[in-house]
Specification:
This protein starts with a strand and ends with a strand. About 30% of the residues are buried. The chain is an alpha/beta fold and about 110 residues long. The chain has one domain. Strands 2-1-3-4-5 form a five-stranded parallel sheet, sandwiched between helices. The chain contains five helices and five strands; from the N terminus they run βαβαβαβααβ.
Amino acid sequence: MKLLFDQNLSPRLVNRLADLYADSTHVYLIGLDQAPDATIRNYARDNEFIVVTRDADFSDLNVMLGFPPKVIWIRRGNCTTAEIESMLRSNYESVKALEADENVGILTLF
């Protein structure tokens, strides 16, 4: 599973989660940190990434346009990078299920 972390998440998550989510990246690392959401969405779709974000924009785009890409929407308030890492680790099976289910496009984590 390849995750594409949005600019509202730390680029450090790429290395911290590399054991579970190999080949993941961050928009900053691929030069898309200032890109509009539509550009990031198209990149994720074309390169088979699941977008991980803390805002509703990608979820809204998926409702309007469908998927791929699939989206993991982290809806927890202020939290640390370590807490987000823990959430993605503890929900690994749910992320796998999201990737495999062709009828589901959004996984919301609280």
